[in-house]
Amino acid sequence: MALLPILEFPDPRLRTKAAQVDPAQVTSPEFQGLVDDMFETMYAAPGIGLAATQVDRHLRFMVIDVSEDKSAPMVFINPEIVSSQGKRAYQEGCLSIPGIYADVTRADTIVVRYLDREGKQQELPAEGLLATCIQHEIDHLDGKLFVDYLSPLKREMVRKKLAKARRHAA
Ligand code: NI
Questions:
Q1: What pTM was computed for the model?
Q2: Residue 122 covered by a domain
């Protein structure tokens, strides 16, 4: 397994729209290895969700684990939200936008259809944090970031703050 570099805002590669995963490729060693690397990268960060877009692999899938003890790893391949209800604001963060947190309003409960790691089609009802996380990661696959929900002024402040943090780190 290997840690993968995570792209950071405003890297233009984060704006790439990911391509569907070929279901016939899901069980291939290459794809399974990439899934393992994504889990390792997400847990090491540490984070609760990571979309392939964030590691510069532009395929529609993501890994998520919202448990406190890394006991609930989930892989969503070609995810599609088939229904959604209600609204709820959560304070979100993102491994591609380190140190920045902001409230984002999304659907409170969703049903997501996807292929699991074995390539089997699943339909999962999700609510609360998991529902927020799934919507956040699907946004990544569409080239969208949570700062896109903020005002242009606030987004510019985020960009400057990250640029400054990078200068200090260099
Ligand atoms: Ni994110």
A1: 0.96
A2: yes
Q: Is residue 17 part of a domain?
A: yes
Q: How far, in Å, from the CA of 140 to the mean position of ligand 1?
A: 7
In a domain, residue 64? The reply is yes
Structure tokens at 66: 């919202």
What total of structural domains would you count in the chain? 1
d(CA 105, CA 115): 26
123 noted as active-site residue: no
Domain that residue 160 falls in:
10-167
Please calculate the CA angle 132-137-143 and round it to the nearest 5 degrees.
Answer: 130
Q: Binding site: which residues?
A: 94, 136, 140
> Of the residues 80, 118, 123, 137, which is catalytic?
137
Enumerate the known binding-site residues for Fe cation.
Answer: 94, 136, 140
78 found inside a domain: yes
Each residue's pLDDT tens digit, 63-79? 999 999 999 999 999 99
CATH of the domain at 65: 3.90.45.10
Q: How far is the CA of 146 from the centre of ligand 1 (A)?
A: 7
User: In this predicted model, what pLDDT tens digit does every residue of 69-124 receive, in sequence order?
Assistant: 999 999 999 999 999 999 999 999 999 999 999 999 999 999 999 999 999 999 99
Q: Chain-centre distance of CA 128, in angstroms?
A: 16
